[in-house]
Amino acid sequence: MADTLQFNLVSPERSLASMQVTEVQIPGSDGDMTAMADHAPTITTLRPGVLKVSGPEGASEYVVTGGFAEIGDGGISVLAENAVAKADMDQATLKGMIDAATDTFAKAQEAKSDGVDAAAKTLADTVAIGDALGISVN
Amino acid sequence: MANLKDLKNRIQSVKNTRKITKAMQMVAAAKLRRAQEAAEQSRPYTERFNAVMAGLAASVGGSDTAPKLLSGTGSDATHLLVVMTSERGLCGGFNTNIAKKARAHADSLLAAGKTVKILTVGKKGRDSMKREFGQYYVGHVDLSDVKRLGYSDAQGIASDVLTRFDAGEFDVATLFYAKFVNVVTQIPTGQQIIPAAFETEEGAEAATLYDYEPSEEAILADLLPRGVATAIFSALLENAASEQGSRMSAMDNATRNAGDMIDKLTIQYNRSRQAVITNELIEIISGAEAL
What we know:
The complex is a heterodimer. Chain A is of the alpha+beta class. Chain A folds into 2 domains: about 5-85, Sandwich (ATP Synthase, domain 1); about 90-135. Chain A is built from 2 helices and 8 strands. In chain A, strands 1, 2, 3, 4, 5, 6, 7 and 8 form an 8-stranded mixed beta sheet that branches. In chain A, helix 1 runs antiparallel to helix 2 (about 115-135). Chain B is of the alpha/beta class. Helices cover about 65% and strands about 15% of the residues of chain B. Chain B is built from 7 helices and 6 strands; from the N terminus they run ααβαβαβαββαβα. Chain B has helices at about 1-60, 70, 95-110, 125-135, 150-165, 205, 215-290, and strands spanning about 80-85, 115-120, 135-140, 170-180, 185-195, 210-215. In chain B, strands 3-2-1-4-5 form a 5-stranded mixed beta sheet, with helices on both faces. The two termini of chain B are about 25 Å apart. The mean pLDDT of chain B is about 85. The chains are: A alpha+beta, B alpha/beta. The interface between A and B is medium-sized, with 28 and 30 residues. Strand 5 of chain A pairs parallel with strand 6 of chain B.
């Protein structure tokens, strides 16, 4: 059996998962990365996307938006501002996320701030979650 | 005798008050447990977050390109005080203590010739801060409709604060809230959130060399605003627990006081009833003797 590592998924409101896993696929802001045991210590920010975990206890998926992942000696900690188990994800939740991202984008455009590109990317990423999960908001 | 009836009414009314305070105490106890659980559950996030931020801040903090949220604007002429209090009263000295702490801070800043701006969260603090520092008052965040504190509430406050910061409205932001120790002790605390101050833990954390993706600066720029929201969120949760704890002990005291009062009134009632009886007996006996 492959080596396992400790995986923690926490959001500000609660801790969602804490278990031994073999691999974690993280939606990093510069692209997806898969971390397994003995990965080099890395800190990456997250883009809105799907986090995939697989381990001896089976595979699970979470939708995360914003935050960061820390891969260290002790395992992986994912600190997501907002994390929802894939099973709990539905049209309404996704719509809420997309609306929030659209709102931020609109505000950034209005203010003509530097955040326009970042907001546009967040919006696109959030919409892409729907495709990844096969949920349509329309 | 009318006096007896008055006393009886009085006792009944105190008994009713005691029932109310007792109920409030029990409600506060239940809410306290919930608030403590919420605070407990947010702790892993806050701890990891601060540990990572401390590491990042230590490695980037010294450079000239460090974000303003970390290094400050270079002056400390204008201070924003974010005063967090409860939406409801009847919680002992909770709101007064926070307001007192904020007031002392504001006074010392004003004495040092700084400009002070005040943002309040929670109705009770708004009333008392507005009364005294009306001209410095810049805004209020209303949470009276919020049943269960969520991270999005903290994000709302944070974005308000950050917008003001970006607009150059202030240089330093300090958060005022009550730190929950236990049911009888809540410590009013002032915590500086902008520029961010992270407690650097010596040793273990510095030992690991991380790869950063994207760059350290980019991560820091992304995470600092979130750090403000995280600090506000944990302060909100602490405050909520403190409020309920404070209300619980206040109501406990009130219940006990009501009990004492009932005892006293009952003794007084019994005495005056006895006096009436004795009086009547004397009248009867002396009437019989006169015959």
